[in-house]
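Retro notes (design track)

What went well: tokenization of the new backbones is finally stable.
What didn't: we kept losing track of which sequence belonged to which structure.
Fix going forward: every design gets posted as structure first, then sequence, in one message. First example under the new rule, 533 residues:
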């Protein structure tokens, strides 16, 4: 057994089934070990996509996502996807296969300091060397899976990957669980909840990683507290629930802010401020934070209490306390939810994004998965989409990089081939990652890719208008719309210009044996009325 074989055995024992990347000569020993060790290597078109796919794979499976790149430019490309896992806190092992050990400190072709590159965007950057590979990999797994979860970088020289393994043990690497919260914090929190007349729960991205999401629903139902969610936490409780009031800080955010500020206590349940800081939306409402870490807040925020520790354990202990009464009414909660959803869909004469998004939600089964990208459509989808289950909506909100939508959808479909998956992306995002269509086709994935084509980087256009700048440098396509090509890399393309066309095309794409691109030409004018308002 060489060290590459050992790495694969340890990763396989941790539940890793796929690794995403782009090979080079330095990568080949690890790929060969993956071939023999039953971890599938997924060739992506770009290393950034490999990182994004590994991020979503980690979210979907609970095992660390695995991404692999060569040295230098391969590593710098990979860094974008690794940064996503860093700020969105997804478990990941990112391996850079580099030069032979004697060359590591030389100024030589493609060599850069990988540890200096990955150190700021990883929980740890570790050097695999002869004699320590088993220890390094077990340490990497433990760090990646311990809360707050995140990526760990491992630098693997080619001579080390080929050297005989010294430590052949494959066990270990278990995560360190968060300590339980202090009892006095639980008592204080219970008192705050009991005293509140209009408490409001806001679910956040730490809650997204809970393996017992049913505790979230049990908590809000126990006390009859309405709940909102951040972008990343959508679906941790079914958004059809009568206590649901929608997503905060996306489209029509002012509607949500006004509602939030009628509360007398905001309970941030697994709310990670990397998504959006409390001071942006909470006003003068006091906050009770129940999370794995103390909240990062501005001095203007009133933190009435903190319960810091294992969220599931905290909820179990709080559920032991008597239910607290509050003054919310069903009509008030339901009326707000209806008004918010109506505001997201202003009257329009043409085929508009909110109409296209509703059609995708209508045709995708309740248990289907959506992966979407970053742009104006992100705001609309996050606010408008009804999510019915945990980890059914994938996007980046901490890192917020364009490019995650398509590789994220590929990873979601690999992780759950039994479920339908749809990718919704803007035209700018599509141009960034169109090469990944070849990846989806090679894997034979049934994957509709709905491209909302409005010819602009619409989010940038909106920001330019609001700052009274000219809309310059943000137009994606000039002139009149032409017909889309027949295919990209053998993936068929259908152009649609209206609601019925999208319905027909999407029904066919969901039943197709491979990927399909649906170019939906939309009038994005309503973004001006919903995004940021």
């Amino acid at each position: 057994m060489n060290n590459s074989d050992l790495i694969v055995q340890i990763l396989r024992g941790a539940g890793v089934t796929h690794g995403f990347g782009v090979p080079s000569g330095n990568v080949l020993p690890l790929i060969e070990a993956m071939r023999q060790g039953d971890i599938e290597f997924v060739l992506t078109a770009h290393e950034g996509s490999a990182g994004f796919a590994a991020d979503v794979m980690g979210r979907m499976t609970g095992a660390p996502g695995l991404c692999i790149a060569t040295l230098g430019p391969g590593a710098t490309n990979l860094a974008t996807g690794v940064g996503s896992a860093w700020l969105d806190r997804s478990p990941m092992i990112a391996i850079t296969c580099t030069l032979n050990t004697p060359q590591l400190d030389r100024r030589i072709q493609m060599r850069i300091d990988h540890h200096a590159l990955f150190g700021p965007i990883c929980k740890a950057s570790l050097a695999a060397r002869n004699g320590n590979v088993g220890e390094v990999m077990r340490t990497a797994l433990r760090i990646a899976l311990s809360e707050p979860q995140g990526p760990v970088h491992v630098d693997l020289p080619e001579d080390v990957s080929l050297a005989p393994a010294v430590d052949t043990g494959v066990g270990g690497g278990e995560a360190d669980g968060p300590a339980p919260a202090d009892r006095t914090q639980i008592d204080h929190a219970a008192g705050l909840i009991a005293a509140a007349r209009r408490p409001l729960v806001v679910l956040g991205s730490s809650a997204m990683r809970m393996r017992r999401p049913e505790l979230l629903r049990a908590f809000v139902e126990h006390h009859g507290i309405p709940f909102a969610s951040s972008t990343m936490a959508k679906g941790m409780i079914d958004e059809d629930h009568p206590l649901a009031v929608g997503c905060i800080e996306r489209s029509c955010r002012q509607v949500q802010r006004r509602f939030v500020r009628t509360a007398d206590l905001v309970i941030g349940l697994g709310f990670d401020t990397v998504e959006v800081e409390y001071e942006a939306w909470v006003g003068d409402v006091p906050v009770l934070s129940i999370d794995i870490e103390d909240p990062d807040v501005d001095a203007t925020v009133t933190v009435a209490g903190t319960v810091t520790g294992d969220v599931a354990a905290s909820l179990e202990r709080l559920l032991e306390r008597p239910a607290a009464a509050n003054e919310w009414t069903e009509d008030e909660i339901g009326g707000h939810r209806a008004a918010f959803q109506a505001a997201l869909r202003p009257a329009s004469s043409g085929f508009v994004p909110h109409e296209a998004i509703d059609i995708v939600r209508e045709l995708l089964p309740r248990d289907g998965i959506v992966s979407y990208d970053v742009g104006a459509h992100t705001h609309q989808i996050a606010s408008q989409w009804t999510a019915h289950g945990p980890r059914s909506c994938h996007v980046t909100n901490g890192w917020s990089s364009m490019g995650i939508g398509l590789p994220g959808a590929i990873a979601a479909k690999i992780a759950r081939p039994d479920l339908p998956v749809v990718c919704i992306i803007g035209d700018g995002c599509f141009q960034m990652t169109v090469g990944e269509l070849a990846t989806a086709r090679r894997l034979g994935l049934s994957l509709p890719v709905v491209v909302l084509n409005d010819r602009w980087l619409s989010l940038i256009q909106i920001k330019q208008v609001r700052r009274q700048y000219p809309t310059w440098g943000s137009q994606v396509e000039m002139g009149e719309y032409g017909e889309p090509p027949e295919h990209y890399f053998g993936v068929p393309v259908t152009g649609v210009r209206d609601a019925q066309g999208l319905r027909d095309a999407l029904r066919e794409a969901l039943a197709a044996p491979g990927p399909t691109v649906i170019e939906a030409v939309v009038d994005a004018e309503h973004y001006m009325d919903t995004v940021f308002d």
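Added context from the reviewer: The two ends are 60 Å apart (CA to CA).
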